[in-house]
Amino acid sequence: MTPLPLAGVRVLDIATFIAAPFAAALLGEFGAEVIKIEQPEGGDPLRRFGTPTTRGDTLAWLSEARNKASITLDLRTPRGAELFRRLVPTADVVCENFRPGTLERWGLGWETLSALHPGLILLRVSGYGQTGPYRDRPGFARIAHAFGGLTHLAGLPGGPPVTPGSTSLADYMSGLFGAVGLLVALRHRDATGQGQVIDLGLYESVLRVLDELAPAYAHAGIVRGPEGAGTRNACPHGHFPCADGGWVAIACTNDKMFERLARVMGRPELAGPDAYGPLARRLDARASVDGLVEDWTRVRPQAEVVAACTRGEVPCAPINTIADLFVDPHVQARGNLVEREAPGVGPVVLPDVLPRLSATPGRVDHPGPALGADTTRVLRTLGLSDDEIETLRRDRVI
């Protein structure tokens, strides 16, 4: 198999659930060796989150722990911590997402780890980051959505805040930012030999992707609220029902796009300068404009609306379910879903690697491993004998 660009990079993933482990998985898709270190009893809680499989873990685990090796090691015990300290000099990266201070209590804080390996890079993901008055508070993605300002934007005007898409969105965003940080830090380490700490709070990833909310508030005191299916900056720009029960998304972000839509609808006069052609007029009459578009989509099946908009070069897409995506010809042509065999489970369909690289594309070698599948192999590399490994297992250190 073609060597991947991160081949030779070793990642010790001692984190749990999604954010920091997702960063490690992204590196693993491009060739890094990722060793997942889990508690001997039960392992990562992600193994029990989502749809169970016949093997005892879940489909979420099989997807998100892809390409990783699994060893068990109780870092809370003196022997477990000592074995981890022996692994650190063999690694380039450690990923963790415990509450701040946890690694320090185990004798595995940054000062200890960097003394063992000055070139080590430590990714630390927590609810609120390693500093500040909220550093000790627990955090999950739902909490990050709320605190970071995203949940306030989700829902219908006047209604209750709702879940903004996936309940794990902040975890995945933080994992992406974490992976970017790791790649930058690896580049710096290769140039200088120096490692560093990457400190990331879940809410910070949410705050970073809120469009112009921060400058708009600072500049003009604007506090945006929930806008339902639309947006304050463009019109028509939302979701519209179709005759067959389906829905479409239409996005007219400028006057030219609306002119095209008006022609597709057979109402070119709507885009005139004295009608709804200028964006300011459309924004002032948002309900009327959206109503005209809905009158047009509501009497046509979804496929017809999408086809007409496509011919007219109007941005439009069906609002798909995952079942729709499985049979969509574009998704199939792009290879966005791949099938891999999971021992004890059978074939599993997973989202493929992103981004696509022309010369060194990443790959999914295997779904998430069984708990402790690689413990013996990895500990042997530290010079432990089979008898020593068996003693550790008997004492529940592994």
TrEMBL record:
Pfam families: CoA_transf_3 (PF02515). Keywords: Transferase. GO terms for molecular function: transferase activity. The keyword Transferase applies. It comes from Pararhodospirillum oryzae. This is CoA transferase. Transmembrane segments: none annotated. The lineage of its organism: Bacteria, Pseudomonadati, Pseudomonadota, Alphaproteobacteria, Rhodospirillales. The keyword Transferase applies. Gene3D superfamilies: Crotonobetainyl-coa:carnitine coa-transferase, domain 1, formyl-coa transferase, domain 3. SUPFAM superfamilies: CoA-transferase family III (CaiB/BaiF). InterPro entries: CoA-transferase_III, CoA-Trfase_fam_III, CoA-Trfase_III_dom3_sf, CoA-Trfase_III_dom_1_sf.
